[in-house]
Amino acid sequence: MASPPPPFPRLHHQRLLPLPPPPHKNPKIPRNPNPNRRSLLLLSSVTAATSLLLPRPSSASASPSPSPGDADDAVASPAVTDRVFMDFSICPGYFRSDRTVGSDLAACPDAEPIGRVVFGLYGRLLPRTVANFKSMCDSDAYKGTLVHKILQGQFFVAGRQGRRDKGEVRPPSDLMRNSEVVDPKAFQLKHSRPGTLSLCLSENDDYDEIKLDPEYRNVEFLVTTGPGPSPQLDNENIVFGTVLEGMDVVTAIAAIPTYKPGERIRQFNDFAEFIGDERAQIARTMWNRPLKTVYISNCGELKVAKPSLSPSLP
Description:
Distance between the termini: 131 Å
Shape: globular
Order of helices and strands: HHHEEHEEEHEEHHHE
Helix content: 10-25%
Oligomer: single chain
Radius of gyration: 40 Å
Mean pLDDT: 79
CATH topology of the domain at 77-256 and 292-302: Cyclophilin
């Protein structure tokens, strides 16, 4: 039997050396107590770049910005900056056969006054629309103009362009072009109550040949009569004022009977419009026309002592 191998000989002179310490995760770099000029230039460059990247506090950021609720309140309750008046009357002899052809409606000899309406205008919110409306009143361009359409329970319309002897409007030549008709912000106000003054866009019934004129200026307006809101007019017509005084006059105009075509006439008109007959549009201008000659007998601007008047209805 073989004998086991001899054990590994132990060296008595061999010593166990201590292991080196593990490397530190974040070794500290010794700082140079005496930096040279190159180090100082590098340090200053880094500091300058850092200051440019970091935002600086300004006075605008320190001041509180208006909240969205404040903007909504300004739109919901716009300030009245200007006031204009319109006197409405009825001319009983306008359709008489012996009436002088070509006479201005403003010179009606037997006018029957209905009353005065005072409108408050939102000049800060819609400066161009308000400026044009004031110019039309100051120049008497609306004077002698017919109220040519009344939709009972909704609104009435005036200011259609055309011939003066027919009770239509001739705007002044220096009237400004209204850029607010294509501004989405101009349609924020709603037709939420009676007495709302609005520039007609979707309800405009000026003749096509007038609208195609390069110098065309839209001056047709409507006034809601109530008793409720008119949401069908929202986002398609520009609200720029409200009735401050004379809501009873607006109600009296709304109560005037109008021409309403029968069902058979409506069907013929729809067919004529379908085949492109231009007479269909002309015939439609007679629909909802008041059976009494209601017109603007006088108009003008009223000076406002306090331009921050709040609109109020009686």
